[in-house]
Amino acid sequence: MLIIFKKILAVVFLFFSFSFVTYGISEAEISAASAVLMDADTGEILFQKNAYTRRSMASTTKIMTALIAVESEKLNDIVTVKEKIYIEGTSLGLTKGDKMSLETLCYGMLLESGNDAAVLTGIYLSGSEENFSKLMNKKAAEIGMKNSNFVTASGLDDAEHYTTAYDMALLGSYAVKNEKFRDICSAKTYRAEYITPVQTRYFSNHNRLLNSCEGVIGVKTGFTKKSGRCLVSACEREGKLLVAVTLNAPDDWNDHRELYEYGYSLYETVDFNKKATDSVCVTGSLKSRIGVDYIGTESETVRSEAEIQCKTFLKKFYYAPIKKNDILGKTVIYQNGFPLTEQLIVAAEDASSVKEKDADLWQRFITYFENLFKGR
Fold first, then answer.
1. 351: closest CA among 260, 267, 279, 296?
2. What pLDDT sits at residue 365?
3. N or C: at which end does the chain have fewer Cβ atoms within 10 angstroms?
């Protein structure tokens, strides 16, 4: 197969040119003191405002707390409240003797923003909130959050508890790629089953964007007097995943809507269904041509200013025998000169060689006479 590709000749070159309408946005239109809009797939910053200024992040901290819990693969563990957790701010009202799954605690902290759920999670996984902060900072380093330091599992204020809008965008982009985390943070409601005492509670997501912004899938709200309103959200449209972060934002809901309108105006879904050919020439067979199929990506969402090129690589003709689904060539899609994706071109039918036909005829001739003599 490698030899075939080495001999492949480019017989088709298609160039696509697109024009787009871009939605403009300025820093003054965003109420947040710090903001970032990031392409979650590439890490590219599409918009920024004081992106690297250190600020407190309130309950958006719980993204990290829940992420560590999810990655621990202990969500089915039953957690017991050994003593009442006295903590300010929003709470699930957990009390001594309560028992529930770690998964329920994750829903409780991401939907209801339960500070006690976050603290209990940290204690369960690490023995103490102090030990848990070490896990948080280790994970932050792995993700590339170079200007963050975690002290509390809940996000309550501490002089040494800080991050940046850019770092939180990295965290949000990483977290929503975990399927379980994504399921939790995007849930609008959750039916929580407490084991002790036996009861059912219903959690509601505080993220208004889930009902008011197309494609939003989470992630977490936050507020303290020191930090102001904080919000990390993720949005997916036409297969393109973006993450928006605002810290200290009086009008955060509208900030995020504006950021997504701007962000998605920078992209366009390009259709690659313009097939170079429906068939190829064959030699050494009773068939002069055979049909082909295309396997692979049929469209991609790309940046508007990108130069998109499509090159198809096929030989002028192919020698029989050819089997259905044999790879004959490929189409490569380039973005700004670099390969973006590709489609394989495969045979849609068999093409036997003439020699095979002759051999088959000779075999039938021999079989006929063998059967004739056996019949005697």
1. 279
2. 53
3. C
